[in-house]
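Narrative summary of target 7.
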Amino acid sequence: MKGMRLRVAALTILLILLLASCSITWPRWGQPIEEPAVSQVSAGSFHTCARLSSGQVKCWGYNDDGQLGNPNYDYSNVPVFIVGP
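Modeled conformation, tokenized:
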């Protein structure tokens, strides 16, 4: 039992040190993350694209046929910017 407590304490300290070394800044509770507004949305069978008010386009979903507009053909569960001419 004592060994288990030591392991849990060591893992907790390691996690705290790891999180302290990250350069991620978390938004405060209740503060919106500022993103450009979405002006248009288009959805395919397994992917979705959104045109932002800035004119940029972000897409997410399946990309096996290049639907997301980026050259790597990888699935994306987060919006990625379209690479355009």
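The first strand starts at residue 38 and ends at 43.
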